[in-house]
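Fold this complex.
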Amino acid sequence: SSSGGKQTTEAASAPASAAGTPTMTVAFITHAAPGDTFWDLVRKGAEAAAAKGNIKLEYQADPDGANQANLVQTAIDKKVDGIAVTLAKPDAMKANVEKALKGGVPVVALNGGIDQWKSMGVLEYFGQDEKIAGEAAGARLKQDGAKKALCVIQEQGHVGLEARCDGTKASFPDTEKIYVTGTDMPSVQAAITSKLQQDSSIDRVLTLGAPFALTAVKSVKDASSSAKVVTFDTNKELVTAIKNGQVEWAVDQQPFLQGYLAVDSLWLYKTNGNVIGGGQATLTGPAFIDKTNVAAVEQFAASGTR
Amino acid sequence: MTAAVTEPGRAEAALDDRVATRSLAVRMLRRPEIGSLVGAIVIFALFMLVAVPFRNVANIGTILYGASAIGIMAVPVALLMIGGEFDLSAGVAVTTAGLSASLLAWNFGLNVWVGVILALALALGVGAFNGWLLFKTGLPSFLVTLGTFFVLQGVNLGVTRLLTGNVATADISDMDGFTSAQAVFGSEIALGPVTLKVTVLYWVVLTVVAAHVLLRRQVGNWIFAVGGDAAAARAIGVPVRATKIGLFMAVGFCAWLSGMHLLFQFNTVQSGEGVGKEFIFIIAAVIGGCLLTGGYGSVVGASIGALIFGMTQLGINYAGWNPDWFKAFLGVMLLLATIVNVYVKRKADLR
Amino acid sequence: MTAAVTEPGRAEAALDDRVATRSLAVRMLRRPEIGSLVGAIVIFALFMLVAVPFRNVANIGTILYGASAIGIMAVPVALLMIGGEFDLSAGVAVTTAGLSASLLAWNFGLNVWVGVILALALALGVGAFNGWLLFKTGLPSFLVTLGTFFVLQGVNLGVTRLLTGNVATADISDMDGFTSAQAVFGSEIALGPVTLKVTVLYWVVLTVVAAHVLLRRQVGNWIFAVGGDAAAARAIGVPVRATKIGLFMAVGFCAWLSGMHLLFQFNTVQSGEGVGKEFIFIIAAVIGGCLLTGGYGSVVGASIGALIFGMTQLGINYAGWNPDWFKAFLGVMLLLATIVNVYVKRKADLR
Amino acid sequence: MSAPILELDDVGKSYGNVHALRGCSLRVRQGEVTCVLGDNGAGKSTLIKIISGLHDHSEGVMKVDGEATRFGSPREAQTGGIATVYQDLALAPLMSVWRNFFLGNEIRTGLLRVLDIERMKQICHDELAKMGVVIPDLDRPVGGLSGGQRQCIAIARAIYFGARVIILDEPTAALGVKQSGVVLKYIVKARDAGLGVIFITHNPHHAYLVGNHFVILKLGRVVLDAHRDELTLQQLTAEMAGGQELEELSHELRGAEPGKVAAPAAVPHGQVQAPELGPGDRATDPEGR
Amino acid sequence: MSAPILELDDVGKSYGNVHALRGCSLRVRQGEVTCVLGDNGAGKSTLIKIISGLHDHSEGVMKVDGEATRFGSPREAQTGGIATVYQDLALAPLMSVWRNFFLGNEIRTGLLRVLDIERMKQICHDELAKMGVVIPDLDRPVGGLSGGQRQCIAIARAIYFGARVIILDEPTAALGVKQSGVVLKYIVKARDAGLGVIFITHNPHHAYLVGNHFVILKLGRVVLDAHRDELTLQQLTAEMAGGQELEELSHELRGAEPGKVAAPAAVPHGQVQAPELGPGDRATDPEGR
Ligand SMILES: Nc1ncnc2c1ncn2[C@@H]1O[C@H](COP(=O)(O)OP(=O)(O)OP(=O)(O)O)[C@@H](O)[C@H]1O
Ligand SMILES: Nc1ncnc2c1ncn2[C@@H]1O[C@H](COP(=O)(O)OP(=O)(O)OP(=O)(O)O)[C@@H](O)[C@H]1O
Ligand SMILES: [Mg+2]
Ligand SMILES: [Mg+2]
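Structure:
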């Protein structure tokens, strides 16, 4: 935006006009459970984009499908300029998303709903296919020479988490599932320990969130098992754990990027009519972080954005 | 009562100067729901003040929808609580009802309405089972329905995966009878600028019917009695067991209604949902003036409780307050509403 | 008592042939925890039968750890329930304690122990606040602590993000005093083949102390009385308010202990944790024979309840049952344990 | 003499290890007042709880109209025309006066069978007024009434709904002299109307004023079962009190100088001297121990 | 005559819109028995609840040892040596007999101040035995005892712990003749020991047997406050019952032919004829309406 023209004028006049009056309001609606580290990164990405584009960001989250749909309705009620929404439970969201689109509010999807976003008429999609990510993890397990994997689901009945495990199972059939209570770390630890004690042939523990990987490390020790821990998603401590070799690798879907792109795309759409991805999903993962490439993400993880 | 005025005893009653007269207004003030009504007004006024979208008449539909989702279940849960029992399985029973209607229709390729009817039978059955187990084991309902809660949670997931291989039901929107069922359970009504979901209508009807039953029918009297003192009620000839089982079945019926809305609003049902909702229903009932120990309360109050909860949830959102603190705001608002509630009731009792 | 045998009234007592003698064994059977003990034995036997790893002595440490995490809180929650009150904030209070210790130490660069002490003050303060609000507002504790539950949930999240910019605390394992604190709150003890987490020790000590207080101390008598009939207790001179506030503070203390374990076991604390655990504590207490309405129960029973819950949770894993049905198994096991419990108690009462 | 409407043959009842009632036989006839007397804990309440269907008996046979019967619930007993005033009154404390009065026997009106609240309030008011009790606000919860007021509601209710047998368990315990008088008069009226009345009391005067038939329980057994003609008030009192009576008591207490004023003193715990108990005081003490 | 330990001046108390007590004045002296009499709902229980610290009065002044006092809680009253038997007994139904007996006054032993259970059981047994009550298993919850047994526990407790004033609210309501006699004897003994006793009863005979001083409440006001010397039993009964008495009642009932047996009949609801109420029955009915 240094080549003059309308954009420059706008960019120049915007701060002057009302000392930083937001150019637009974006509602950012996810199915995150409160206090989840993954969603914290998504949110940080969204906030970074909002700050850059002088956007007023209204972040809301509710894990319950019907409630999340109602959050879309409230965004419509608030007459926001754009909605970024996760479509983890696409059927629940469908009606209200279409309502928003009908009302002329641009909607972009992220994280979940890779199969449904197009049919709903959503502009863009940023995220990964959970099934494909799971399959990638399975393939990697096979490649690592694993014999039997334990897939730890921290929220029973969660479609996205189930898809990851199912994907893993598809490409690595010797995968077993276990459900744990994600909000209760000691019980997570005890449950994984007990499973490892029950089935000593398990040599990989695949967790679906960074904090659970760190707990699984303790469980492995408690059970005196030789299993290695691998995981989906990262956070600061996990990156360190990969570096120390406590965790083998992590499937990274770049949550920061998902949040960032979702908000920025709405800004682009509003100010310049741009559509990222050209009608196709923009995949932010899966990529693998392991000992070989962990150094590259380490410093960003330390500042809490990876 | 008119005849009584000239009757000797009555005339003498007027002589007791110890009893200050109590006006109709004050007597109104002593109804159990009055406190929650004032609480609701306070919360409403607060959000009118701070949240711009709250003032928009068109948004009333959203607020009422949020409240109705709670209210439809809060009404029977309040009745049950007045009758002295809890139902912790009420939240997952909603999901069970939705799942079973969908799975039965889908799996056997039946007309959707057949699934709906079978789900009703199942929901009533779960309620009756809760009640039966209560009397059979002599355990408190907290424990019995906790057992059902866990079992239903597991069954929801296990059966759904068994039949569909997924954790959510398949889309049934292309099946026979879906459109008509959707019209019944998932439609909308436009009233001027306000679009109301049909659940709001069900909620209002349920509240009126339940309030009528509670205050103007024999069963209502029995509900108060079995909750207030089950031993005394039994001693005086109230069929305690039938009354309580009936109440559990009423919860089952409303769970079915909610479940059907869930199904036909969203076409599919997630098998893991509904957990934790049972407490929101209980909270609504308690805010509405129901005693946790039974024997006292009001369904109108419970509905107002649902409204308070719905308003608060959306109001915080409309006001654009920091969502990190959402729960903290919610907690403060709930405490505020209930403290106003208690304050008003205490004042009323003192008159 | 020995002297009394020759005393006239006593001697005559023996004359009333209406009262069948009741042996010591039968009197033991009438203790509130006996039912849960039998329930625990049944569950234990069941899993010994079906789950091979359950039979491995070395795995006892895992089972006890799972149980102790519940038991440490189930003990004060049981005391509170016997005293007639609930604390729905008990689950998140654990997280609050862990978070605050970590955040205070980290944010101000203090020795970890300073954070630990400040967290204790805070946890006790939250308990005292719950109790104070209970009496100030006259609301039932279900509502008051529900408010605190929401507020703490919001504060946990909001403050953590405010101070760290994240939703979890920073790793404090490199700070002064961490190692010694970890030795106290997160260490392990090897007993032959069994490795026990220090929480198991705390759990046992707490149970013994609480049982002693409840049965052999003045305060214990008061706890039973304020729970059984608060009005009668007040009338006869029991300081109802102080007793109940003390009980809330006991819950606060144990929440602090659990929170410290959480922090020093996992080095960081997730701000969203702890939700839903409050009911597990209550469930353990109820399985252990505590009455929801107060005035009756046992802390030993609550600890056995925690053990039943822990054994069931892990036993299902050890047995390798289909995890889809996990909750259903859990529900059936809990019902089984409590039905055995009631059956045993009823038999005992009839002797 | 008409055939007994209610017969108990060798009926017994245990609560856990307490055998509260053993081998009790009793006949209740309509048009008669059967008084059941006895010490505290003698088993009077247990006896009437069996008759009113609240407890099941563990031994023996109960016959209603000559047929062996076991009431499954109090409701069955009520359907059979038996109304009871329980010692603990069986009122739901949070419910209003009129709702308590009509509990289980609600009056309904119209096609929709809606509660006829006006009528119920009217009847409730009238029935209480007949007993000399007027509670101006019948919507008040009974929990806030005085002990005597509550007792009157329970009595009025039983008298109103009793069709064949009325059972009164210590109905006058919380009542003053006049109210007690009214209750006694009601008992006579109920008898005159042809109902069977079972009247449980500690007061032999009250019993002798209205009773046709007297049964004394002691330690869960019937120790006296006599018709009025076979008994004088003195005998009844003697049987009941083990030879001791108000007269005697006042005689004993005369030694205690009722008018005397003692020197004030603060007394440490347990230092009030116990009175001498006569042998009778203890032999027939509650539970007889 | 000693200075009153307890004085009420113009004390009033309202429950919501019910002014249960208005302008009540009362003096209680140690070494004397002060009897409070009155109809159902007259405000007797309310009065003693103020003295025992359970309720606060809304008007007037209460003086203890001449000093204006407001008890913040019953515990304060008890620390001041005032022990009370409440009409509803104030027992925790699920707690054992001995725990109820010592509730709030537990005996502790040793350095650790552990409960001295053996001793408490012993004392509890002894105190109950002195009243002629023996409950073999003191670990039984009081909820399972008969009405009279519970009453005896509450009375024994108050007598044991009362240091300066003992208040008894209708202590003999659930008791038989003998047990009542024992309670009356205890009242005299407590007076002899120099305690102040407030005795609430419906029974003028009982009151006259032990009272030094008589206060009659009516509709929440003191209508009579007289010393024993100024009053005969007949006057007291007349004052209380409005001129009507057991004698008179029996006279009235004689017309009802106590021995009569009526023809059996099933009676539809509400068809038992109400007895004629004398003017007295109604004018002084509960709450006086
Ligand atoms: N639910 C119960 N559980 C155990 N024991 C009981 C129960 N109810 C009564 N009892 C015992 O049975 C015996 C008889 O009690 P009951 O209530 O019939 O006596 P009562 O004659 O009515 O005495 P009162 O005149 O004091 O009311 C007593 O010893 C009492 O303690
Ligand atoms: N908690 C309360 N709330 C409202 N009214 C009450 C309450 N307690 C008592 N009253 C009313 O106050 C009046 C006096 O009651 P109180 O219990 O003092 O009478 P009493 O003289 O003890 O009668 P009784 O002989 O029947 O026990 C009654 O009209 C009663 O209904
Ligand atoms: Mg009795
Ligand atoms: Mg009274």
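Residues 114 and 129 of chain A are 6 Å apart (CA to CA).
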